[in-house]
Amino acid sequence: MTRTQEVLQDVVIKFAGDSGDGMQLTGSQFTNNTALMGIDLATFPDFPAEIRAPQGTLAGVSGYQLRFSSDSVFTPGDECDVLVAMNAAALKANLKSIKKGGKIIVNTDGFDAKNLRLANYPEGVNPLENDSLSNYTVIKMDVTKMTREALSDITMGMKEKDRAKNMFVLGFLYWMYNRDMENTISFLKEKFGKKPDILESNIRVLRAGYNYGDTTETFTTTYKVEKAKMESGVYRSIMGNQAVSYGLIAAAQKSGLQMFLGSYPITPASDILHELSRHKAFGIKTFQAEDEIAAITSAIGAAYGGALGVTTSSGPGIALKGEAMGLAVMLEIPLVIVNIQRGGPSTGLPTKTEQSDLMQAYYGRNGECPMPVISASTPADCFDAVYEAVRIAVQHMTPVMFLSDGYIANGAEPWRFPKSEDLPAITVNFKKGLDEGEEKLQPYKRDEKLVRPWAIPGTPGLEHRIGGLEKQDGTGNISYDADNHQHMVKTRQAKVDNIADYIPLQKLDSGTATGKVLVVGWGSTYGAIKSACTELQAQGKSVAHAHLRYIRPFPKNLGEILKSYDTVLVPEINNGQLIRILRDEFFVDAKGYNKIKGVPITKGELIEEIGNYL
Amino acid sequence: MQLFYMSEVTTAPALTAKDFATDQEVRWCPGCGDYSILAQVQKVMPTLGIPKENIVIVSGIGCSSRFPYYMNTYGMHSIHGRATAIASGLKAARPELSVWVVTGDGDSLSIGGNHTIHLLRRNFDINILMFNNQIYGLTKGQYSPTSEQKKITKSTPMGSIDHPFNPLALAMGADATFVARSMDRDPKHLQEMLLRSQQHKGASFLEIYQNCNIFNDGAFEVFTEKSSKADETLFLTHGEPLVFGANKDKGVKLDGFNPVIVDLNEGHSKDDLWVHNEKDFYKAQILVRMFDDPRIAGHLPRPFGVFYETERACYEDVLQLQIDEAIGTKGVGNLDKLLRGNEVWEII
């Protein structure tokens, strides 16, 4: 039999199945495998809030989208080339995201009468048996049956055997894309090392899937995507929440501070708590508090004691932390508050992505309560951005809000990880004793940056009291004096504003310094904006892209940049939040593009929108 | 940790109560019970042998929570109800510090109730001084979670409907390892209880009856006034029978699980009485439930002293132990190894 190998530049695959089908694991394994080949990639896991939503239903569909390319990749792709559908609901939920002419790999066992009914297909209608899929290439496999056959001589319950069926699909795709399976086999060995039966069944089914492709004559073509032309260096694959964790560990190591994490479990931030809990050998103390308030206040207590205090949460939890954030502003104490945003308000859409907590970060506290805000734009960028958040917190004695979101948190991308020696220094100067001529500590005596000293318990001679009441500048004594309060409000604001002197100027991500349209983004819209802008620029269109990491304070040159274009367009996954702040700060008549559907903005949507202003 | 403090005793200069006072004007209402508590704390602190830079007093919000400003140690006057959580984080990060929480009945049992019980179950080595005045003083006189039912206050013109907390029973329920009660008007006893709280390794919950002479004057009068104190209170001493009364002629014995008052002049001797054992978990549960309203005829006397003390590993110590263990098995964390991970590829 002759087989051809086709070289592709860019592929988007979506794995979709029931939330118990192991699609997230299948997707992440294929991702790691792709990364190890040196192929560029971006991912988008999309799953229901329920751990086990009703089986077979549309609500229970869990998806994992992966785009990989020999070119640079910034988004997980607007449409899929290949859809893996483990059941009828998975097909129905994702049909509109498949490219015309794309491939659909279906598990035929997931299209029996019961599954069709649960997926709300009308009585007697089976999409595999009518011409509704005639625009696509459909590859039918009875994955369940072949999985069971591969395990026929293993003594194991049928249910247990069926759990391995995702491995069949993974093996088949490894064959289809000319991959080696070693990384998955070693992953399985690590995961199931203590359960030899499960390990054996998974590996066997994985190989069965591969061999099925190899030996069945129906499949005549395999595909290959070449290595991407990325900057030279050593890469690994990283997910957003993992990068946040590593950034915090790195900052603790470089600053010489002990890290204390106070956290309460919440989607999609919990993985940071899990990850940091695993790294005790770095001296990290993690504390799963009784609630969100204790999570932040315990971190404040630790920070008062001289630790790097960190708390991690998502929108609803951040709301509960509001009063304590105000205390940290008043105490002028370093603290990093991590918000992995999700759809809101209230419980909202816990597993979906949104950028709707920017106003909360900016204004969501009582009183005049300024706090720096830093945001990450991609999974790997979380490392650098959170490192910056720590630097600012420690060097400016202030709580800092770090914003990421569900899309970044669970997304993966290749990361050219830094060497620890190349990371910028974070200097910490605890106050060691009284200054000359000082009779007792002036806890609010400020330096040229308006920053007060960090005097920690255990230091003889520096005993002092601080608190949430308004205080006299310098002495820190309680003060209800009218002029002092105005002075302190202005001083706390000036202290945060001054940070603009200690952050880099805003750079354009792409495009020229003046022109027709400037697209200004923040956070996870980075990939879509970048892709749309570079595509338009290649067509000769006058479009530029600026992406903000520093949202409070803004870089000093941002106003000037905004005024250099005919139109400023601000795409956001919210109802218009950054745009309000930009209008307020810079009197710029910016235009919004707002998609609030719990999913990322696509490149195609943006190209169309930008086109309206060209 | 105790050894550390003891070694400090020999080198630190002897401190006095005055060393623990600050230059801040004390601003509680004249006649407030807080003055006495402050004085006793300032008296006890120099005897602990702890350098004052190693002492941190954390408070929340309320009248009692002004306390840190009047103590020349490290301190934080934080936000309502959160002192216990702040202190937990501080103690976790800095186990060598002597951490004290000063709180009130509203601060620790209402808005901060959650953090209080969790601190107790985790058994951080922190001393909680809970000033109970059965009223909200700073907000000018609303009923508190320890106010008696039917109490007429600004927010309960027809009387409070709320069933009050029994703070020590709550502490026992949260598996506190040290549970005690004292009062503002008995300086000697209060000093002794403060000392015991500090000496206990683990979370100490010390309830201090404190008179608010503005909004709830006389709430504990029967326990504190000379004329009634001896008959209404029962001072607990480890290993001693439960004897009370002006003539020391009344006692408490257990009838099954029920404490009953007996007259030592009429057919009962001390040998019949319940002998207090601080280590007895089950009897401590009965003792904290001796919480009768003193206005009801035949009521039991209110116990004061150490109800219960036990040893249990402290959170901050086990937290550190896990770190030591991780370093012991894996070696000190290597940042470059972490960032590199297990699977990498090179682009040339």
UniProtKB/TrEMBL annotation, chain A:
<dbReference type="InterPro" id="IPR009014">
    <property type="entry name" value="Transketo_C/PFOR_II"/>
</dbReference>
<dbReference type="InterPro" id="IPR029061">
    <property type="entry name" value="THDP-binding"/>
</dbReference>
<dbReference type="InterPro" id="IPR050722">
    <property type="entry name" value="Pyruvate:ferred/Flavod_OxRd"/>
</dbReference>
<dbReference type="InterPro" id="IPR033412">
    <property type="entry name" value="PFOR_II"/>
</dbReference>
<protein>
    <submittedName>
        <fullName>2-oxoglutarate ferredoxin oxidoreductase subunit alpha</fullName>
    </submittedName>
</protein>
<feature type="domain" description="Pyruvate flavodoxin/ferredoxin oxidoreductase pyrimidine binding">
    <location>
        <begin position="259"/>
        <end position="473"/>
    </location>
</feature>
<feature type="domain" description="Pyruvate/ketoisovalerate oxidoreductase catalytic">
    <location>
        <begin position="20"/>
        <end position="211"/>
    </location>
</feature>
<dbReference type="Pfam" id="PF17147">
    <property type="entry name" value="PFOR_II"/>
</dbReference>
<dbReference type="GO" id="GO:0006979">
    <property type="term" value="P:response to oxidative stress"/>
</dbReference>
<feature type="domain" description="Pyruvate:ferredoxin oxidoreductase core">
    <location>
        <begin position="516"/>
        <end position="580"/>
    </location>
</feature>
<dbReference type="InterPro" id="IPR002869">
    <property type="entry name" value="Pyrv_flavodox_OxRed_cen"/>
</dbReference>
<dbReference type="Pfam" id="PF01558">
    <property type="entry name" value="POR"/>
</dbReference>
<dbReference type="Pfam" id="PF01855">
    <property type="entry name" value="POR_N"/>
</dbReference>
<dbReference type="InterPro" id="IPR019752">
    <property type="entry name" value="Pyrv/ketoisovalerate_OxRed_cat"/>
</dbReference>
<keyword id="KW-0560">Oxidoreductase</keyword>
<dbReference type="GO" id="GO:0016903">
    <property type="term" value="F:oxidoreductase activity, acting on the aldehyde or oxo group of donors"/>
</dbReference>
<dbReference type="InterPro" id="IPR002880">
    <property type="entry name" value="Pyrv_Fd/Flavodoxin_OxRdtase_N"/>
</dbReference>
<dbReference type="InterPro" id="IPR022367">
    <property type="entry name" value="2-oxoacid/accept_OxRdtase_asu"/>
</dbReference>
From TrEMBL, chain B:
<dbReference type="InterPro" id="IPR011766">
    <property type="entry name" value="TPP_enzyme_TPP-bd"/>
</dbReference>
<dbReference type="InterPro" id="IPR051457">
    <property type="entry name" value="2-oxoacid:Fd_oxidoreductase"/>
</dbReference>
<dbReference type="GO" id="GO:0044281">
    <property type="term" value="P:small molecule metabolic process"/>
</dbReference>
<keyword id="KW-0560">Oxidoreductase</keyword>
<dbReference type="GO" id="GO:0016625">
    <property type="term" value="F:oxidoreductase activity, acting on the aldehyde or oxo group of donors, iron-sulfur protein as acceptor"/>
</dbReference>
<dbReference type="GO" id="GO:0030976">
    <property type="term" value="F:thiamine pyrophosphate binding"/>
</dbReference>
<feature type="domain" description="Thiamine pyrophosphate enzyme TPP-binding">
    <location>
        <begin position="61"/>
        <end position="208"/>
    </location>
</feature>
<dbReference type="GO" id="GO:0045333">
    <property type="term" value="P:cellular respiration"/>
</dbReference>
<dbReference type="Pfam" id="PF02775">
    <property type="entry name" value="TPP_enzyme_C"/>
</dbReference>
<dbReference type="InterPro" id="IPR029061">
    <property type="entry name" value="THDP-binding"/>
</dbReference>
<protein>
    <submittedName>
        <fullName>2-oxoglutarate ferredoxin oxidoreductase subunit beta</fullName>
    </submittedName>
</protein>
